[in-house]
């Protein structure tokens, strides 16, 4: 069942320096509950694509349908996780998660469950300055999940974290996905991360930003990065990248 | 044998700890000693110089005389009534000017259109020194309370205006994106995002406003009044009661500092979430 449907989505940025074709004829269908990762060289339009899906950027061509309805602006249906956690520094963990929602008994209960889900018990009343980068990003994820989004959009959410924290965050996110069955669209520039998480890896080209290839990852969870099937897909993705012109800036982590 | 060694080391640890404690105690004492040594010796020399009539008592009365004058003023109840009057003026002017300044700063901060209509005029008025408008205020409102309160209000208005405005405009635009994605209502955006983000600046404005109000109070009372600490000083000057002049000055200084500490206390409590807060 299709949840998200992108038809002929194109986006141009017009500046004094000229026209950037950030996205060109993007066609993408995302099934309900699917975990999509998007990978591509920097500047290929990954963030632009996520912002369009989120409704943060509505000046584009083509249409974006969520559950059959056109996306006209941002809403809590589309949870967004930025690269930085972007917490409110003056609110503690609990209040950052509930944010603008009235603190009813129901909300309180849900917040408590989510704090458990993102493994932050004991930090309910801590302020953002007391949290590590990974913890803060987990608060941001809980904040989005509290609104029961139909889809969670994540723009290189673990990009700023060290390797260990990153691996832990991947586990947490997979755990959330398996428990909540939230549809995920996850942008990364780490090939292993992309394969490790995804049902389907979307590889993009730069200038103009297009979808180069989609590679399904049929490996069952829990996955092992050393597993032969995993390595085979990794080779496939790497081969694609060797052909990508602007692929130099792509980070390939060796693990 | 091992037991003995254990006892031995235990004792050395205790001794070390004691020594450390003693050292810490000493350092606290020496902190005070070092800080108070200079003022204490100045006061002592001053007192002695007065006693041996090395300096004129009308120019510089001895500390003990100032203390005696202070005591007399308290006993007669004079000090209390003058001080109350001064305090009421300061509070009245501060509340009027500060509230207007805060309101104008918020209004201009929230709306580009209000900014365009209001800010250029206010910025122009801001450059007029408070002391320079005293003669005008006296002409318009006389020597009464109105001109004093208005003078204090003018001084309290601008720091809060400027800082509230600045605070609202310096909210991190990245957090506005978050507010959009979470579908904040306009009201929630103001109460949960903009005002808390602007609070550090608003509190700074509050402190500066209080300081300004206090300075203006002194100026207003010195320009002519029949009550208040400023009047006490001017009156004492006419009769060369220098000790009382000193008492007045000390009162202004102590309360200026006290009001500042009061706001800083709130700052510490309200801004404990801040990354860079030291203290
Ligand atoms: N606001 C903007 N104005 C002009 N050009 C932009 C803007 N945002 C992005 N671009 C351009 O669009 C292209 C895609 O950007 P982006 O989506 O941020 O790439 P990615 O996230 O894949 O690194 C880049 O070439 C970038 O320079
Ligand atoms: Mg990006």
Automatic annotation (TrEMBL), chain A:
<feature type="domain" description="ABC transporter">
    <location>
        <begin position="4"/>
        <end position="231"/>
    </location>
</feature>
<protein>
    <submittedName>
        <fullName>Sulfonate ABC transporter ATP-binding protein</fullName>
    </submittedName>
</protein>
<dbReference type="GO" id="GO:0016887">
    <property type="term" value="F:ATP hydrolysis activity"/>
</dbReference>
<keyword id="KW-0067">ATP-binding</keyword>
<keyword id="KW-0547">Nucleotide-binding</keyword>
<dbReference type="InterPro" id="IPR017871">
    <property type="entry name" value="ABC_transporter-like_CS"/>
</dbReference>
<dbReference type="GO" id="GO:0005524">
    <property type="term" value="F:ATP binding"/>
</dbReference>
<dbReference type="InterPro" id="IPR027417">
    <property type="entry name" value="P-loop_NTPase"/>
</dbReference>
<keyword id="KW-0813">Transport</keyword>
<dbReference type="InterPro" id="IPR003593">
    <property type="entry name" value="AAA+_ATPase"/>
</dbReference>
<dbReference type="Pfam" id="PF00005">
    <property type="entry name" value="ABC_tran"/>
</dbReference>
<dbReference type="InterPro" id="IPR050166">
    <property type="entry name" value="ABC_transporter_ATP-bind"/>
</dbReference>
<dbReference type="InterPro" id="IPR003439">
    <property type="entry name" value="ABC_transporter-like_ATP-bd"/>
</dbReference>
Automatic annotation (TrEMBL), chain B:
<feature type="transmembrane region" description="Helical">
    <location>
        <begin position="192"/>
        <end position="219"/>
    </location>
</feature>
<keyword id="KW-0813">Transport</keyword>
<feature type="transmembrane region" description="Helical">
    <location>
        <begin position="239"/>
        <end position="259"/>
    </location>
</feature>
<dbReference type="GO" id="GO:0042918">
    <property type="term" value="P:alkanesulfonate transmembrane transport"/>
</dbReference>
<keyword id="KW-0472">Membrane</keyword>
<dbReference type="Pfam" id="PF00528">
    <property type="entry name" value="BPD_transp_1"/>
</dbReference>
<feature type="domain" description="ABC transmembrane type-1">
    <location>
        <begin position="83"/>
        <end position="263"/>
    </location>
</feature>
<keyword id="KW-1003">Cell membrane</keyword>
<dbReference type="InterPro" id="IPR035906">
    <property type="entry name" value="MetI-like_sf"/>
</dbReference>
<feature type="transmembrane region" description="Helical">
    <location>
        <begin position="149"/>
        <end position="171"/>
    </location>
</feature>
<dbReference type="GO" id="GO:0005886">
    <property type="term" value="C:plasma membrane"/>
</dbReference>
<dbReference type="InterPro" id="IPR000515">
    <property type="entry name" value="MetI-like"/>
</dbReference>
<feature type="transmembrane region" description="Helical">
    <location>
        <begin position="31"/>
        <end position="52"/>
    </location>
</feature>
<feature type="transmembrane region" description="Helical">
    <location>
        <begin position="122"/>
        <end position="143"/>
    </location>
</feature>
<protein>
    <submittedName>
        <fullName>ABC transporter permease</fullName>
    </submittedName>
</protein>
<feature type="transmembrane region" description="Helical">
    <location>
        <begin position="87"/>
        <end position="110"/>
    </location>
</feature>
<keyword id="KW-1133">Transmembrane helix</keyword>
<comment type="similarity">
    <text>Belongs to the binding-protein-dependent transport system permease family.</text>
</comment>
<keyword id="KW-0812">Transmembrane</keyword>
């Amino acid at each position: 069942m299709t949840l998200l449907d992108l038809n002929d989505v194109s986006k141009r940025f017009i500046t004094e320096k000229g026209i950037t074709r950030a996205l060109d004829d993007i066609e993408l269908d995302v099934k309900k509950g699917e975990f999509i990762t998007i990978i591509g060289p920097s500047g290929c339009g990954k963030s632009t694509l996520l912002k369009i899906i989120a409704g943060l950027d509505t000046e584009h061509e083509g249409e974006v349908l969520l559950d059959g309805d056109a996306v006209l602006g941002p809403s809590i249906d589309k949870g967004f996780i930025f690269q930085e956690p972007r917490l409110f520094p003056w609110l503690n963990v609990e209040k950052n998660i509930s944010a603008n929602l009235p603190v009813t008994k129901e909300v309180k209960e849900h917040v408590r469950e989510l704090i458990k889900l993102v493994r932050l018990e004991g930090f309910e009343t801590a302020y953002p300055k007391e949290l590590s980068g990974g913890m803060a990003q987990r608060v941001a994820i809980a904040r989005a999940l509290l609104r029961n989004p139909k889809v969670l959009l994540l723009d290189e959410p673990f990009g700023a974290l060290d390797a260990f924290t990153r691996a832990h965050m991947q586990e947490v996110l997979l755990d959330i996905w398996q428990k909540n069955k939230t549809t995920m669209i996850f942008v990364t520039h780490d090939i292993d991360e992309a394969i490790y998480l995804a049902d389907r890896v979307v590889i993009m080209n730069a200038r103009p930003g297009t979808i180069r290839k989609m590679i399904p990852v049929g490996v069952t969870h829990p996955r092992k990065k050393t597993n032969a099937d995993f390595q085979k897909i990794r080779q496939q993705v790497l081969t694609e990248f060797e052909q990508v012109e602007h692929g130099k800036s792509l980070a390939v982590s060796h693990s | 044998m091992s037991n003995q060694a254990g006892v031995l080391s235990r004792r050395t640890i205790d001794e070390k700890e004691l020594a450390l404690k003693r050292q810490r105690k000493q350092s606290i004492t020496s902190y005070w000693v070092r800080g108070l040594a200079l003022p204490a010796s100045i006061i002592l020399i001053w007192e002695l110089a007065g006693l041996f009539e090395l300096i004129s008592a009308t120019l510089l009365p001895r500390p003990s005389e100032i203390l005696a004058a202070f005591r007399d003023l308290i006993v007669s109840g004079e000090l209390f009534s003058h001080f109350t009057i001064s305090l009421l003026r300061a509070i009245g002017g501060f509340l009027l000017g500060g509230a207007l300044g805060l309101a104008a700063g918020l209004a201009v901060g929230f709306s580009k259109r209000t900014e365009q209509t209001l800010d250029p005029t206010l910025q122009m008025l801001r450059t007029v020194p408070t002391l320079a408008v005293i003669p005008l205020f006296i002409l318009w409102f006389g020597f009464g309370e109105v001109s004093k309160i208005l003078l204090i209000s003018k001084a309290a208005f601008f720091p809060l205006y400027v800082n509230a405005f600045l605070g609202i405009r310096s909210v991190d635009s990245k957090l506005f994106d978050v507010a959009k994605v979470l579908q904040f209502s306009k009201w929630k955006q103001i109460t949960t995002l903009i005002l808390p983000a602007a609070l550090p600046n608003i509190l700074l404005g509050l402190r500066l406003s209080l300081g300004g109000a206090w300075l203006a109070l002194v100026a207003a009372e010195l320009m002519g009044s029949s009550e208040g600490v400023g009047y006490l000083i001017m009156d004492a000057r006419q009769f060369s009661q220098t000790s009382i002049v000193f008492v007045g000055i000390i009162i202004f200084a102590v309360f200026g500092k006290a009001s500042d500490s009061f706001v800083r206390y709130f700052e510490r409590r309200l801004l404990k979430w801040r990354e860079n807060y030291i203290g």
